[in-house]
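Help! Submission page says 'invalid entity' but I think these are all valid:
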Amino acid sequence: MVIPLAWMISTSLKPDAQLLVFPPRLVTSQMTLAAYTRLFELFPMARMFFNSVIVTITATIGQLVVCSMAAYAFARIQFWGKTLLFLMFLGTLMVPLQVILTPLFIEMRILGWVNTYAGIILPTMTIRVAFGVFLLRQAFALIPRALEESAFMDGASHGTIFARIALPLVRPALATLMVLAFMDAWNSFLWPLLVVRDTNMMTLPVGLSALHGRYSTAWNMVMAGVVISVVPIIILFMSAQRYFVEGLARAGIKE
Amino acid sequence: MNYRNDRKWAVIFLTPAILLLLAFMAGPVIASFVLSLFEWDLLTPPNWVGIANFVELFRDAEFYRSLGNTLTFIIGYVPVVIAAGLVIAVMMNQALPARTLLRTAFFIPVVSSWVAVALLWKWLFNPRYGLVNYALSLLGVSGPAWLFDPNWAMPAIIITSVWKDIGFVMMILLSGLQEIPKNYHEAAAIDGAGPVRVFFSITLPLLTSTIFFVLIISLINSFQVFDQVWVMTGGGPAGATSVLVQQIYLNAARYGQMGYASALSLVLFAIILMVTVAQMRLQKRWVHSE
C-alpha cells in the first residue's frame, strides 16, 4: 500500500538524470525540489490550483446551503405533495453523471458556460444534491419537536428556527456532507474534462492529465503535480477522518 | 402551533434544490431521450432519425468492443477487490498494532483523485524504469510491457483500481464485521471450531448482506469506469481498453455525434438499472438474514 505512495514522493524529488536509472532507487543523495520549481515555471500550475480551490469551495458551500434548506423543508415543514416530491428527489439518485453528459454539455454551450467556473460548478454540485438532502433530512428529523415549539410560541418563523436552532444541531451531518462534497469537487474529472478546453480554466485533475500529455516522460514533474494535488485532500482527510468514513459508507458511490 | 406560513416557507426552502435538479439533472435526462432520436453535430440543425441511433449502436463493433472491455474490467476487478477487501477487513478486525495508521494508509488512495492514482500507476507500470517490473525482475520474472501490451493493459488498470478502492471496500466490510455479536464466535470456539471453520460457518454467512451491498456498489461503479482508463491508456493499445463511458465522451466531445452519444448513455443507464434490479431479486435468494 505504502510503497507506491513513497515512490510518488521520491520520484517528484529526483533530478532528471536520476529518473531513468535502473535499478530504481527510492532514496538518492541528490534529492531536489527542481521538478516543483520547473512545474510552476513551465505550466500554469498555480492557476490550476486556484481554479480547483474556487470550484471546490463554491460547490461545497453551495451544496451545503441548497441541501440543508431542502432537507429542513422535508423534515420539519408540512406541505402538500411532500412524499411525492421526496420520492422524485430520491429518483435522481439513480442517475449517474455519465448518463446526462451530452445534454449537459449542449446546455453549457447554449448558456455560454463552456470554460467558465459556473459551467464546472453547477453540474458538479447537482449530482449529489439528492444524497445530501437525504442525509440531512434524517438528521433534521431527529430534532425533538419541543425545541421548536417554544420558538414558535415566541413567534419565530421557520427561517429563524432553521438558522438558529436546527442547523447548529445537525453539525455532524453537515460535516459529513461537507467532506464528501469537497472530495467530489476536488477530484472530479470527467465533467471538467468535457466543459473546459482552455488550459487556464482547468482544475487540477484535468490539468495533470494535460501536463502528462505534454511532458509524458518528465515523471518527476508529473509526480510533483500529483503530490500537490493530493496534499490538500489528504490533509482534510487526516483532520476529519471520522466524517470521511461515515460519509463514504453512506454514499457508497464515489464519483 | 403556528403552521400558517408553512407553504410559503416550503417554497422558499425547496426552490434552490428544485431549480438545480431541474436544470442540471431532470432536464438533461429528458433531453437525453429526445436527443437520442436525432442526429446532431451542433453545427447544422438537428436531424430527426427516429431509432436509427439505437439500430446503429447495436451494429457498431466499437460499442461491442467497449462493452466487452467494460465487462472484462468488471470480471477482473469486482471479485478481486471484494475478496482482498474481505481478507484485510478480517485482519483489521483483530487487535493489530498500529491499526489506525494502517487504516489511514489504506484510505489515502480512496480520497485521492483517480487521475492522481492513474498517473502514479502509469509510472509504476513503466516497462523499463517502473517499480513493478523492477520488483518482478528481482523474482527472476521479465515483466510485460503492461500498458503498451494489449493483453496486459487491462490487468494493469484492474490492479490500479483495486489498489485505489480496496480501502473503501475494507471499511464497509469492517463495519459489517463489527456488527457480528462476539458471543457467536466465542460459542463456536468453545465447540472446538478452528478459525477457518469459524470464518466460513459464522462470519461469512452473517456478512452476506454487507458483501451484497459492496457488490452492488462495485458493479454500478465499474460500469462507469472511465477516469483511470482515459489517463492510463486512452483506450489503447489498439482499443484493448476502450470502455463504454469513453465512447460516450468521444462521441459527444470529439466526433460531434450528440444523438449517438445520448443513445449510448441511455443504453448504459438501462444496463445499470437491469443490474440493480437483477441483484435485488438475487439478494432474496442468497443473503442470509436473521
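Support: the input was valid. A stray whitespace character was the problem, and the output above is from the cleaned input. The longest helix of chain A spans residues 45-76.
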